[in-house]
TrEMBL record:
Coiled-coil residue windows: none
SUPFAM superfamilies registered for this protein in UniProt: Actin-like ATPase domain
Name of the protein described by the UniProt record: ROK family protein
Lineage, top ranks: Bacteria, Bacillati, Actinomycetota, Actinomycetes, Bifidobacteriales
InterPro entries per the UniProt record, alphabetical: ATPase_NBD (IPR043129), ROK (IPR000600)
Organism: Bifidobacterium pullorum subsp. saeculare
Family designation: Belongs to the ROK (NagC/XylR) family.
Amino acid sequence: MTNERQGTLIGIDVGGTKIEGVLTDGSGAVLATHRVPARPGDTQVVGDVVAVCRRLSDAPLPVGIGIPGQVDSERGVVRDIVNLGIVRLDLAEEVGAALGTPVRVENDVNAAALGAAAIVGEPVPAGQDFVFLNFGTGLAAGIVRDGRVAHGASGAIGEIGHIPVDPNGLPCPCGQHGCLETVASGGAVARLWPQGEPPMPDLLAKAAAGDAEAGRVLGMVVHAIGDTVQIVIQAYDPAVIAIGGGMAKTGRPLIDAIAAELDRRAAASHFLRTLDMPGRLRLLPADEPIGAIGAALAAKVLGQ
Ligand SMILES: [Zn+2]
């Protein structure tokens, strides 16, 4: 159970329903895992994270935590996590005090981006970006630059889900209309195609079988995903874009549909052809604990 090998790290992915922990080496290879159900409340979240860490190792290893909501990574403070009943919590300080170890906290999508970069395992040249696109309940990107999470000036660097692309589009909880996230996210597809469980594979299958309504909805969704990928490529010009989140569990048929949309656009534009958009896409394996692995890798900065 204990592993005190040099460079060993603990990563914790705190979600709305579960807390998943991994023990990794410095490259993100998983040595042990442990998960518990998530319980709301500051005391419960801190206590559960500490318990998972202790279960993974009785040595005081660096700990990285990925968690949704607004995260101030420099101070280790998290805010406004509705599902967990957290308004403001000094997560790094409280977990660190209990374990006697340094703790790094990252936004969950940023942490997952580090994990995705490790899993994809393609070297990205210095100064170029690796982008993780999370098609989950919402839509957000995590950007890894030179092996580190990029945060931007205010921490909002990856909030691409709230780029408004259609002034006549659906209202978004953020107060705008026609945000990418209102169509290009797992949550949006579940609303637009409620008859499928899970919705995206059902939508693809019915559209392929000639169902006109499925074809219309799929066209809308794939167009918005195409917009998302194109915006990411034109804004960041990343070497690699990894597609993840719940919707990515659809697997190859989803990537094929996205690539077909990007090819369709490129056929009409010499400029887009030069960008080789489909060639940058990678599908992430569905069963890897990417968020927890990335959280562990985020803790590497603690030892530097
Ligand atoms: Zn929005």
